[in-house]
Design a protein that fits this description.
Elements (H helix, E strand, L loop, with lengths): L1 H53 L5 H29 L14
Helix pairs in contact: 1-2
C-alpha cells in the first residue's frame, strides 16, 4: 500500500513537472517579448546620455536620473527572470504566476 502511494506521488510530481516544461518554450518567448521594451528603453537612455555628454549639457542631477531610469528597467528584467526561475523550480503544488507587463 505504501509503495503505491509513493509511486502515485512520484507520478503526480512527474506530470506537474512535465506540464511546466511544456510551457517553458512559451515562457521564453514571453520573456523575450517583455524584455524588448526595457532593452529599447535602456538603449534610448544610453544614447541620450552620450549625446548630452558630448554637448557638455549633463548635470549631476541628470546623470542620477539616467541611472535611476536604467536601474528601473534592469529591476523589471530581473523580476521577470526571478518569476521564470520560480516557475520552473520543481514542486508538487500548483501555483498561479502573474507576469507583469509594461
Amino acid at each position: 500500500m505504501r509503495t503505491l502511494e509513493i509511486q502515485r506521488k512520484k507520478d503526480e510530481q512527474f506530470l506537474i513537472q512535465r506540464s511546466k516544461l511544456s510551457e517553458v518554450g512559451e515562457m521564453i518567448t514571453s520573456i523575450a517579448h517583455q524584455w524588448k521594451t526595457p532593452l529599447i528603453e535602456i538603449s534610448t537612455i544610453a544614447q541620450e546620455l552620450l549625446h548630452k555628454r558630448k554637448k557638455s549639457e549633463l548635470s549631476e542631477n541628470e546623470t542620477q536620473e539616467f541611472v535611476e531610469e536604467i536601474m528601473t528597467q534592469v529591476h523589471y528584467m530581473t523580476e521577470t527572470i526571478d518569476d521564470f526561475k520560480a516557475f520552473i523550480k520543481p514542486s508538487t503544488e500548483k501555483k498561479i504566476l502573474l507576469f507583469k507587463r509594461l
